[in-house]
Amino acid sequence: MKRQALYFVSPRSLEVRGEALSHPAAGQVVVRAICSAISPGTEMLFYRGSFIPDLPLDSIIDGLTVPAAYPFKYGYSMVGEVIELGEGVSSNWLGQRVFVFHPHENLFIASVESLMPVPDGIPSEDAVFLPNMETAVNFVMDSAPLIGERAVVFGQGIIGLLTTSLLARFPLNDLVSLDCYSLRRQASLDAGAQISLDPNTPDILSALKTRLHDGADLTLEISGSPQALNQALAVTGFAGRVVIGSWYGSRTAALTLGGDFHRSRIRLLSSQVSTIDPQLSARWNKSRRFELAWQMIAGLHPSRWITQQISLDQAAQAYQLIDQHPGDTIQVLLTYA
């Protein structure tokens, strides 16, 4: 058996390589890919070469704990169908649609423990959003929004849109989003933002401060742009909190921490989905958070934000599109014949 696997081989260079695929061992299965989602944040850093060398590709996903060095496979949003069983695997898995944290390839071997059955009634094109929805759920849990608060979200890529959608379910006083691209700003309004603005508009900080009166109570920076963090700090009010969900890779953020910030008592919180807030971990674990993420997927139908579906053999074009024309994309899927 042979498979087709996507490799990152150097900055802005990809190859789809043919590889031999063995039969599954005991406790393993073969999965045939249906679709996988390209992460426009993390994957673009790897695609552009803006990662920290020798830092693991991922600290917890099986197969991605190796140091970052070309060439490598990457990807973590895969939906497929189980087509072959290894010894000792229940026959109930055969034909099952599953979600797996796995790189982009059309066939692969996975342990049963790594499989998550896709709930009945959830299309594959929605199920592929599971990692992004879990991340958005994590951001909102870490943010702990309160009734009547004024919230601002910088960045309306797919994770920003999902986060805005979840925040829109809270009885906030105001929910403002910012993004450079008009396509995403319109999607943000559809997701529940009361207003969505271009952060590059002249006097944008003055306009935000006028709207927010004493400043935002809660600000989330999930744009992926280090420069946005300064804007996030500037619009946050006294004793407000800034949740930083962006991963900047090897890029640095030059922050203005003089002036008002020194007396502002603003709290900065890094938020990343690999762990759960220790204050919640007595009651929450990854399984419970995944259950919630599936519920949110069923209610929000994130597949409405898929802008392109491109076959694996044209993957280079898909990444080039996201890299060079981000304003034309929200979520790009790779498909497998």
Provide a concise account of the structure shown.
The protein has 337 residues and is of the alpha/beta class. The chain has helices at residues 42-48, 124-127, 130-143, 158-167, 182-191, 204-212, 226-235, 261-264, 286-300, 315-324, and strands spanning 2-10, 13-20, 28-37, 78-85, 97-100, 107-111, 116-117, 150-154, 174-178, 195-197, 216-221, 236-244, 267-270, 306-311, 331-335.
Any overview of this molecule?
The chain is an alpha/beta fold. The protein folds into two domains: 2-118 and 301-335, Medium-chain alcohol dehydrogenases, catalytic domain (Quinone Oxidoreductase, Chain A, domain 1, Alpha-Beta Complex); 132-270, NAD(P)-binding Rossmann-like Domain (Rossmann fold, 3-Layer(aba) Sandwich), CATH 3.40.50. It is built from ten helices and 15 strands. β14 (306-311), α10 (315-324) and β15 form a beta-alpha-beta unit. It is globular and about 65 Å long. The two termini are 16 Å apart.
Task: Compile the SSE list and pairings.
Elements: E1 2-10, E2 13-20, E3 28-37, H1 42-48, E4 78-85, E5 97-100, E6 107-111, E7 116-117, H2 124-127, H3 130-143, E8 150-154, H4 158-167, E9 174-178, H5 182-191, E10 195-197, H6 204-212, E11 216-221, H7 226-235, E12 236-244, H8 261-264, E13 267-270, H9 286-300, E14 306-311, H10 315-324, E15 331-335
Parallel strand pairs: 8-9, 8-11, 9-10, 11-12, 12-13, 14-15
Antiparallel strand pairs: 1-2, 3-4, 3-6, 3-15, 4-5, 5-7
Helix pairs in contact: 3-4, 3-9, 4-5
